[in-house]
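Tutorial handout. Part one gives the primary structure; part two gives the three-dimensional structure as tokens.
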Amino acid sequence: MIPVRIARGEREWPLSEIDLPLDLDRLVPGREAWEVELGVGKGAYLLRRAAEEVESVGLLGIEIVSKYYRLVRDRARKRGLTNVLLMRGEALYLISAVLPAGFAAAVHVYHPDPWPKSRHSKRRLFDVDSIDLVTGLLVAGGRLYFATDHPHYGEQVAEVLDSHPGLELRALPGPWPDGPRTNYEAKFVAAGKPILRYEAVRLAPGSLVHPAGVSGVVAATSPRD
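Part two.
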């Protein structure tokens, strides 16, 4: 298991020093809303969004690649972005065992690894066995934003989201209104390559479990480092 690290500003903690589930109001007080990005990469969107809403919105980013985690951590520090909470670790584990449920106004997932081989499908964020963990982060009315340059994977994601009774899905016909949200996406837009973009709204509490994934709800356990 990858050791979990949590950073805000100049401070950084191992998971063993943090009470669970994560008390976001204590770590980043005074936020009117929270947004989550799963897989922040080099932090282009997370840091931009944090700078736009520095007084009101908390941005929680999760990244498994240590060099990107350190890069985004250091950039947030240099820019004085005290509303950024960054976590290094595996997203599904952190969602299931560390983060509180139903706290996010938005969840952003841009160009994740599609894990095309069937034996790797359990690693996907958007699978019938894991989708309830991801959407469970959202408040009622919260929005999930997703983009991929892999058409087949995008169609599979759309099928999973559209068949979920707790979500309302729509495909976005054009680019994001604020422009490309990752450096990767900007390169693909400049090259004229197609990108699939979706927005899903979490409906009021009720039928919030994907019917095909009930047996696969993740029960993650791990020793705290």
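Part three, for discussion. The CA atoms of residues 60 and 85 lie 5 Å apart. Confidence is low (pLDDT under 50) at residues 216-225.
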